[in-house]
Amino acid sequence: MRKIKIDIVADVVCPWCYIGYARLQKAIKHLEEEIDVELYWYPFELNPAIVPGGESLLQYLARQYKTSEQACRELQEHVTKLGYELGIKFDFDDDMSIYNTRKAHQLVQWAMQNHCQQPMIERLFHDYFYHHLPLDNDEVLLNIATDVGLDRVLCEQVIKEPSWSGAVASIERQWLQAGIQVVPAMIINEVHLMSGAQSEGVLIKQLREIASHSNRSRAH
Q1: Of 200, 203, 189, 172, which Cα lies nearest the Cα of 39?
Q2: What residue intervals traverse the membrane (predicted)?
């Protein structure tokens, strides 16, 4: 069984990151008899300047992409259709907000140390896009962390400790300095970069080729 390590740089309020992850999971399932994949998640905040309590998602998107709110609704409809094909039920509406995700990323990094990143990431995606939960709210985050098996008291310390916020900011700077500007970004075996929500077919092809190349390199 060939092994591959994938570092995923993403934000949990990014629908393309959710789609990219779902496609990657399908590709991994397709290759499960050939390749053993280890996933690690790293932070990328779409907008670290969002105020506490969030802001209107439609207004944020319209400002970010310099377009109309109606054009943003049409984009959301397109994303919803793509998600449906993957079993993701995006539930966009005009009242939906986007939130600062720094604290969420702090918990995701803590979850890595506790071998609990996957369930943490999946719950954050699900609870934001399905239930529109405010991911900048301490109680919401602590409830999610507890549900996936993390210690609530320790997680509260992680949320409130400035050094954890600083660690996330430092990791983000490192990825930016490495040239990561589009998410999701998948770095395979610390060498091969795949940017954006690639199709399942492309992922299968690339993972298979990289695994084969890595195997030949070790053989020499």
Answers
A1: 189
A2: none
Summarised one tens digit per residue, pLDDT across range 38-77 is 999 999 999 899 999 999 999 999 999 999 999 999 999 9
Local structure of residue 158 (DSSP, 8 states):
H
Q: What are 146-158's pLDDT values in tens digits?
A: 999 999 999 999 9
Prior bond to 52 cis, omega within 30? no
Tokens, residue 196: 């954006």
Q: Could you tell me the residue ranges of all domains in the chain?
A: 2-51+100-219
CATH of span 2-51+100-219: 3.40.30.10
Among 139, 110, 102, 141, CA closest to 124: 141
